[in-house]
Amino acid sequence: MEAGRIHLEVVTPEEAVLAMDVDEVVLPGEEGQIGVLPGHMPLLTSLGIGEMIVKNQGDEANYFLVRGFAEVLSDRVRILAEECEGVDNIDIQKARAEFKDAEREMKRLRQQEEPEQELLEKYRESLRKARMRLMLSGELDDDE
Amino acid sequence: MANLKDIRKRIDSVENTKKITRAMKMVATAKLRRAEEAMKSSRPYANEIRRVIASLADRVDEEAHPLLEQRELPETALIIVVSTDRGLCGSFNANLFRRLDDFIKTHEVADEQIDIANIGEKGLRNFRRHEDVEVVRDYEGVIGDVDYDGARAIAQDGIQAFLSGDYDNIYLAYNEFVSAIQYEQIIEPFLPISIDALVDEDEEGDQPGGVDTDYIYEPDELSLLDYALPRHLEVQVLQALLESAAAEQAARMTAMDNATENAEEMIEDLTLEFNRARQAAITNEIMEIVSGAEAME
Question: ipTM of the predicted structure?
Answer without folding.
Answer: 0.84
